[in-house]
Amino acid sequence: MAWILLFVAGVLEVVWAFSMKRSEGFTLIIPSVITVAAMIASVGLLALAMRVLPLGTAYTVWTGIGAVGAFLVGIAVLGEPAAPMRLAAGTLIVAGIVMMKMSST
């Protein structure tokens, strides 16, 4: 269950990053509210997952999901460049997340 909570927390991190971008510096109310709500929910779920998972594993996986998810949303939705070096960097982050998960009990 902790891993599911951690995954959802990571997805919510992507949600708040995207909605923050859409908030135009917190000048638009709906994206701003979504940003704050997703931030609170994300950190709350991370805290629940950390009751079971080690700090280093939980935090690394959480930030990794957020980083890779935001990277992919940037490419797919916002038209950011998918340069080979950026794709390689994203692949390395995913590899690190997988290794962290595999090394955890």
General description of the model:
By secondary structure, the protein is mainly α. The protein has one domain. The protein contains four helices and no strands. The protein has helices at 2-22, 29-49, 55-76, 84-103. Helix 1 runs antiparallel to helix 2 (29-49) and helix 3 runs antiparallel to helix 4 (84-103). It is flat and about 45 Å long. The relative contact order is 0.16. The model has no long low-confidence stretch (mean pLDDT 94).
Question: TL;DR?
Answer:
The protein is mainly α. The chain has helices at 2-22, 29-49, 55-76, 84-103.
In terms of quaternary structure, the protein is single chain
| Count of helix runs | 4
Q: Assign an overall shape.
A: flat
Sheet with most strands:
none
Radius of gyration based on Cα positions: 14 Å
Number of strands: 0
**Portion of residues within helices:** over 70%
Average pLDDT score: 94
In total, how many domains does the architecture comprise?
A: 1
Order of helices and strands: HHHH
Gap between N and C termini, in Å? Answer: 13 Å
The amount of beta strand, in percent, is under 5%
Unreliable stretches: none
Provide key terms for this protein.
105 residues, mainly alpha, 80% helix, flat
Sequence-ordered SSE layout with sheet pairings:
Layout: H1 2-22, H2 29-49, H3 55-76, H4 84-103
Helix pairs in contact: 1-2, 1-3, 3-4
